[in-house]
Amino acid sequence: MPEATESESRKLLGRLREVMAGSDPGQARLDKITQLIGDSMGTEVCSVYLFRDADTLELCATEGLKPEAVHQTRMRLGEGLVGRVARTGRVMNTADAPSEKGFRYMPETGEEGYTSFLGIPIQRLGESLGVLVVQSRDGRTYTADEVYALEVVAMVIAEMTELGAFVGEGAALSPLHQRPVLLRGTCAQEGASEGHVWLHEPRVLVTNPIAEDPRREMERLTGAVEELRVGVDKMLEISAGADKEQLQVLETYRMFANSKGWMRRMEEDIARGLSAEAAVEKEQSQARARMGQVSDAYLRERLSDLDDLSNRLLRILTGQGSQTGAELPPDPILIARNIGPAELLDYGRSLRGIVLEEGSVGSHAAIVARALAIPLIVNVQRVIAEALNGDHVLVDSDQGVVHLRPDESVVTAFRDKMAMQAKAQERYASIRSTPAVTRDGARIGIHMNAGLMADLPSLDSSGAEGVGLFRTELQFLVRSHMPKRSELVANYARVLEAAHGKRVVFRTLDIGSDKVLPYMKPTDEPNPALGWRAIRVGLDKPGILRMQLQALVRAAAGRPLTVMFPFVAQFEEYRAARAELDKVIAGERRLGHRLPERLEVGAMLETPSLAFAPQKFFDEVDFLSIGGNDLKQFFFAADRENERVRRRYDTLNTSFLALIERIVERCAISDTPLSFCGEDAGRPVEALCLAATGIGMLSMRPASIGPVKSLLLRSDLGALRDVIADARERGEQSVRPAVMDWLRAQG
Ligand code: PEP
Ligand code: MG
To answer: Which atom of ligand 1 is nearest to the CA of 471?
Structure first.
């Protein structure tokens, strides 16, 4: 790059800095900027268009176009050349604008006669803020140097916009991050809450985008990159034994940290007049823009690694730590790109809600959020760019909606809804210790699902009669290393103590499929849900299963113990697992340890095959529990994690109910207690129909107990059975419409 051009653009940036430092109101600043650029580039027109709302760009300042068009000329995202630059995030450089596809002439601006057009996106970290345009009469394309210089200027304008430099009297621009925004995502844990934003990783604010002394900035950058490299090497050293994926990420970090191209581009930005941190951010912005256009998952991941690395570098340069001195608000709603289960547990119940830009319904973080009963919405695009620490926020997880900085009317409607829910909760609290007996006298056992110590306080407050499903894998999933047997003993003992004698059904490890332990070698399977998981792992590699069974027996220390094996697909698997337990008991006896006072051993029925097992199987098990989440996915061949199909088949489908009835009948023949512990047990209408088909015990999330019990208490199962039978008789696919009509008729 020629020295002269470098110093030209440094001069321009120097003058921009004076504008920034001055006390002019926002509009005057913008006007000065367009003037400066027009002068220094020798172009007739320079204009700045900024977003008015998510879809509309507005001409906010111009040198060369008609001044009366300012704040009048608007275009939609994608409309005309300016709209196209904003939508694609790509530079447009043309000598003949009118012949470009999508060109739109705006007569009120007086832009006729300007044939060449250079449009530069103004963006900050992938967030599109507007477009910087220069136009000239002569039909020419702008040189690479000119484009580059304007990119640097656009970067500074982006920073200034972020800092609110153009807000104020006459600017007619509402400040960024002050408008109400509604964002949508997917519900991963129901609930509604109101609070204030707490960013897990707050955005780093660059307050000095322009620097006077490039040499000093180079030194700062080199020093910071060196610190970053040392840090990455250290991480690699510590993680020597980590899994392949983690190591791959760190190796990519190292590759980027040593990348000459990355470094060179940042150095060029500094030579043009940017500060070290602005140079890092400019590169980061461009990587993010590329990320939006890359469809290859692997490449996207690598670009997101680069993004993480840039964040680290920015923190080193600005000295802004992970929370920049901000204090956790009393009603925090956590906002993050993604978060690990252990980090989430660290926050614990202090959180009112969680909103993730990425994440998934089946992620470990979602499991923890459920255990803590914190409303969680995942897949909320743009939430990180939009939210600022301390913003007022409403999370309506049932609807999958986040209201950032809501206006009064939204807040009022939301609070009304919360008040209604609170009233319902009061009603549920009043029936907490009432047994669930239906109007026609059927007694349904109501138990809760749990998996972490954090769940157990709900055992008393929810009115559950016991824990019908304790998912032991959760304690394995939230750790970074395999727990020792002694840790497990202590843990299970604490669970039993907290249960105060209520029955706790410990399900042995259900790993594999979507539950992959971070410290176990991942197996590459074409279809993990149908693969090596749960009891299959336990039987093939019995070491962990034995250790877990020993821990359970020791934790019981003479108290009753209930053990359940997951994902049993055939009788033989149950027998083999039971034999492991018998061996463990014999071993414990030899060692002189106290044995459980009473031992109940059961299986989960999660594959249709087990419904057709020999009757002897039903005789041998002490109890069975239907894992409806898995049973349903295998019955309908519809992946429970796949958004496209997971809601396609109704639990109240007559075929599925026929399968449940068959299981009920087979259990009745052998007098085997049967429960249902999938998510459907916690949905009132589904729970009612399950009870009508003859299931005597339901195990669900604590928050579902009130609504389910309340409906059971008011219902007559005999009458419901007639409704179901009639719907079937008519050949209906699902009994839901008939059941809903019946419920409505009863008010
Ligand atoms: C089920 O499959 O219904 C179940 C309760 O187990 P999980 O959801 O843990 O697979
Ligand atoms: Mg299951």
So the answer is: 9
